[in-house]
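FAQ: What does the model actually see?

It sees only this:
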Amino acid sequence: MRIVGGDWRGRPLKAPAGRGTRPTADRVRESIFNILAHGRVSFVFQEARVLDVFAGSGSLAFEALSRGAEHATFIEKDRTAIHTIQHNAGVLGVGRTIVVLPLDGARLPVPPIKAKAPFNLLFMDAPYDQGLTQPALLGLINKGWLAPEAVMVVETSAHETLIVPTAFEFIDERRFGAANVSFLRLKQNS
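And it is asked to produce this:
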C-alpha cells in the first residue's frame, strides 16, 4: 500500500496486521480522489480539515494530507490500527500534527477540543454488514463534527443498502468490486 498522489506520492503505508481491517486498495483510493477533485464534487484539498472515521490504516486521510489538506483527525477503536496510524504518521513526518481519537465511530460523543472540529472532508469505511454506518452518520450530524457543506465519502459493501440521512445530499456513487463508494454533501440548512 502506498500514497498515490500529492507531495508524498509513492511513499509506503503500513496496513494493520490481521483481518480486522480492509485497507482501501491503491487503485480505488486513486479513483476516489480523482472523483473528489475532478468529478461532480470539485473538492479543493488545500486547507481542508479531514476526519477519517473507522480509520484502519488511515490511508484515506493521509492521502488527503499529501494533496494539501491542513489537518487530519482519525477515529479508530482498534489498538493495532491506532498503532498503525501512528506509525504511518511518523514515517510521513506528521506524527505530532495529526490527532488520533480512540473512539467507537458508531457512538460518537461531542468532538473534543483536540479533534479540531468541524471538518469539511470526511471518510468513512465501517466494517461491512454490521450496521455501523447509519449510526455513525447520525452521530456526525447530531454531535457537531461537520462543517457547513462538508463532503463525505462513505464506503460500504456492494450488497449493503446505504440509507442516507436527509441532512445529506447524494452527489455520486461508484462500485469497485465488493465495495460501493458514495459521495455525499451536507445540505446548507443542516
